Amino acid sequence: MAAQINPSILSADFARLADEAKAVDGADWLHVDVMDNHFVPNLTLGVPVVESLARATDTPLDCHLMIEAPDRWAPQYVEAGASSVTFHVEAAAAPVRLAREIRAKGARASMALKPATPIEPYEDLLPELDMLLIMTVEPGFGGQAFLDIMLPKIRRTRELISKHGLELWLQVDGGVSASTIERCAEAGADVFVAGSAVYGADDPAEAVRALRAQAEAVTEHASWACDH
């Protein structure tokens, strides 16, 4: 099972987004953080920028919507060119309906959980998803320190995915770096969002390759992957 690295443009130079997208050639996805200054205390970008970015890169876009009313807005991000759209369960009015609508429009449907949101109440929703995102920092700002207390939650989520025999990707976002990615992989994550660890490096593309190699080396021997 290959590890996937999704560089976060939240840590990129917003004045040079097309160039910054090219700087991570070889990345599996480009992670796009959409924030509305309501659900989280920060404001980033919206549909027009996603449309422009989709035209500027061949790397598929992984849009993470940290916004209120995702039921209304998420489908527009698929139409703008996103290949995967993540909504927060804390903000969604009808998460199953929303996931089905995202899928029906041709994108992968993903659901995110903030650090304090448990996974267990949403076990029955997992078959409706293509990916689940466990936030390993409080959403809203890049550059935060990784929360180790999220590792047991990652493990419990991987156990639920295995229990139901699902081909569900498990993504982590927040503080992922060379010093934390192996712990995340061992716990069960297989998709890794990395911002400053990639865009803060001298060679972002090489940083992507190095992080993927670290994660895959752990995944190869992880108990959850061997049982998969």
TrEMBL record:
Role of this protein = Catalyzes the reversible epimerization of D-ribulose 5-phosphate to D-xylulose 5-phosphate.
Stated family: Belongs to the ribulose-phosphate 3-epimerase family.
From the Swiss-Prot or TrEMBL record, what is one GO molecular function term?
A: D-ribulose-phosphate 3-epimerase activity
Q: How is the cofactor bound, as the UniProt entry phrases it?
A: Binds 1 divalent metal cation per subunit.
Q: Provide the cofactor list for this protein.
A: Co(2+); Mn(2+); Fe(2+); Zn(2+)
Task: Write out the entry's keywords from A to Z.
Answer: Carbohydrate metabolism, Cobalt, Isomerase, Manganese, Metal-binding, Zinc
Annotated a divalent metal cation binding sites: 31, 33, 64, 173
What name does this protein carry? Ribulose-phosphate 3-epimerase
Q: What catalytic activity does the UniProt entry give for this protein?
A: D-ribulose 5-phosphate = D-xylulose 5-phosphate
Q: Which GO biological process categories is it annotated with?
A: pentose catabolic process; pentose-phosphate shunt
Q: What is its EC number?
A: 5.1.3.1
Organism expressing this protein natively: Streptomyces dysideae
Its Gene Ontology cellular component terms are: cytoplasm
Any one Pfam family here would be: Ribul_P_3_epim
User: What SUPFAM superfamilies does UniProt report for this protein, alphabetically?
Assistant: Ribulose-phoshate binding barrel (SSF51366)
**Entry binding sites for substrate:** 8, 64, 140-143, 173-175, 195-196
Q: Which residues form the active site?
A: 33, 173
Superkingdom assignment: Bacteria
